[in-house]
Model the fold of this input.
Amino acid sequence: MIFIVQRKVMPLKDLLDPQGKAVMGGLQNLGLQNISDVRIGKHIDLQVEADSKEAALATADDAAKKLLANPVMEVYEITVS
Amino acid sequence: MIFIVQRKVMPLKDLLDPQGKAVMGGLQNLGLQNISDVRIGKHIDLQVEADSKEAALATADDAAKKLLANPVMEVYEITVS
Done:
């Protein structure tokens, strides 16, 4: 079976997010004054062939640890659909 | 009230996603052969001050159209929490 695993990788809350700050500045220049914070991360969709949802999740978690997220600077969430 | 608006911006399905292809190659080199496709997009969290959920959603949609997504190449989804 093929599962779509969605992964959201965001910079840690305590760290400065320069990309988000730049976008917030841009939005405020465009007149959207009521946006008080912007944080930008990555969204990764993996198409995984696995026997079960659990196996797909394990593969995705493995991928995350090996390549897709840097635990020193980022947090990640995984959802399977 | 302050709402957190989450926005997911992904490249259109019909377009090639070179970043995703590169990551897929990397994962396969690491021995994860059962991943058949990877697509990478952006995840943007906006902190919006608004009177209601609908107003927050409207602001986020406005921001998306003005700055955050390129409709020629990307699709986006918005959720408010």
Summary: The mean pLDDT of chain B is 87. Residues 7 and 44 of chain B are 5 Å apart (CA to CA). The beta strands of chain B are 2-11, 35-49, 74-80. Chain B has two helices and three strands.
